[in-house]
Each structure stands twice: as structure tokens, then as C-alpha cells.
């Protein structure tokens, strides 16, 4: 959405296509406007993504704008034309909006929260997985968050817990090379506006996260299998490999101690590994290493020089 600041060297923004027909808000009960347009929140609903997007744009995008701006609302102000298509835009959204007294503000913010709830529920029903329904759901979340912040102000924003979810955003970020674990953190820890900003940042690493999950990132893990190739620090080095006694390591762990591996050199400069048992209260400085696999405790290619 074009209301979000653009980072330097940004990736293309997420464009939300206008899906007509757009039905003007009728001024009656806002919470049931979508139902009057034919929207249902049933799991078995077979409404197409295009029809779903059209209803959501009429109700939760332009409807919220109409209710907040009242007589100042003009639909064309929130549509960005291009050579072929038209897209939703928030560039002309005022930075200050007066919806009335405190009670009116409370009711309007409640409508914004309700809009986010509807999107979250439809997302759980997998109704927003495809385009253009997915982009539309994200646009509604950005608008609802923005309007509630404008009405409340930063000092009162924390009073409302803005919960959101977007399968579309998750797929979009993963497609840009984000780790599923990072994406899950963004959804939980950030608001939709911040998420859209982060999604435009170029990833600094080309690591593949295809095998990562929402619970763990394994892109930086080293698998000591047939695909792993050892390298020496210096080309042509012929030093031998050193490894710990895995049986001794296991025995120390069984006794409830912590195995510490240290590198020792003899008078001729030859390296060897020493294993000692320590406790959690030991004052020995050390670097923790994962011990899921005995082989990860091996120290390879230690030069004697």
C-alpha cells in the first residue's frame, strides 16, 4: 500500500487491484453490510476470490473510508489508475479525521477492530489464500490499523489489541526468501503496516529456507553427511582431523555434568582434544555447541601451526 514509507532500494510494493462492482455503503448497520452484499463466513462457501474481493472492498475498505470521512469521502481519491488496471490507494488519506465525540470514536474504532476480526476469520477459513482476495484482506488490515491509530492517537493505541493474520502475506514473504520462522515472528510481533514495510526490504542472504519451519530455521545448520565438504584454512594444508571420544562425552552427560572440549598443543605444535566435566556453576569460559549429533562435537582440520 502506498501509505507505507518506502525503504531504500525497495522491492516492488504489493498492489491491490480494484475489483468491481463496488457497492456504496448504505449507512445502515455497518457490521451487517457484508451480509447484505451476500458475504457469508461459512466454511463451505464457494464464492470466487474475485467476488469475495469485491464485497470486502465495498464493505471493509471503501465502507470504512466512507464512514470515517462522511461527506468528504470520494471513491476516486482512493483509486490509483495505471495503464491497464486500477489499484486501491491510501495516499490521499487525511492525517487527521474527526468522527465525532468520544462515544463516536469508540464505536468507529470498534468497527476497525471488527474489520480485522472478519479478515482473520476468513483467513482461517482459507477464503483469502488466492488473488485478489488475499491482497484485499491485507489492504483492509492496513486501513483498519491506520484509521484506528489516527482516531486514537499513539498514546491510546495500546488500549486496543489489534490481532491480525494473513496467509497471503506469509506466502508473499516466503516467496521473497524469508525464513518461515522469521515470517511467523513478523505476524505475531508486528502490525500489518510494519509487515508490509519489512516485506519490501531486500534479503541480505541467499540462503535457502526450503527446509525450515515456523518453529526452527535450519538454513545455517551444517549436515556432516556425504554432501558436506571439509575445507582447510590454508590451501595445501595436510593436517589430520581430530575428533572427540563420543563415548566419554555421553558418559559425562549421563552423570549430569557438562562436557567441555578444549584444544591443546604439545611442544612440537601438534594439536589434541581434551574433554573435561564441568557443572553449571563452573567458572570456565566456553562456547556452547549443539549436541543433537555426536558428530557435531568433532573439531575438524585444526592446524598445528
What does this structure look like?
With 305 residues, the chain is mainly α. It has helices at 33-36, 49-69, 102-124, 133-152, 154-157, 167-175, 180-189, 192-198, 246-254; strands at 79-81, 86-88, 258-265, 271-278. The strands form two sheets. Strands 1-2 form a two-stranded antiparallel ribbon. Strands 3-4 form a two-stranded antiparallel sheet. α2 (49-69) runs antiparallel to α3, α2 (49-69) packs parallel to α4 (133-152) and α3 packs antiparallel against α4. The protein is elongated, with a radius of gyration of 28 Å. The N and C termini lie far apart (58 Å). Mean pLDDT is 86; it is low at 292-305.
List the helices and strands and how they pair.
Blueprint: H1 33-36, H2 49-69, E1 79-81, E2 86-88, H3 102-124, H4 133-152, H5 154-157, H6 167-175, H7 180-189, H8 192-198, H9 246-254, E3 258-265, E4 271-278
Antiparallel strand pairs: 1-2, 3-4
Helix pairs in contact: 2-3, 2-4, 3-4
